[in-house]
Amino acid sequence: MTALYGFYVLIWPALTLAVLVVICRAVLRDHRKAKEERRELV
Fold it and tell me: pTM of the full predicted structure?
């Protein structure tokens, strides 16, 4: 049971990091596309 609880606690930082990476990649891709089209990102 302790190992399961430890896994549960440790998985959240990994999931958060994965979501953050996905969001950052999408923003960078949109930024590059906006720069190519010479328009603002927002």
Answer: 0.75
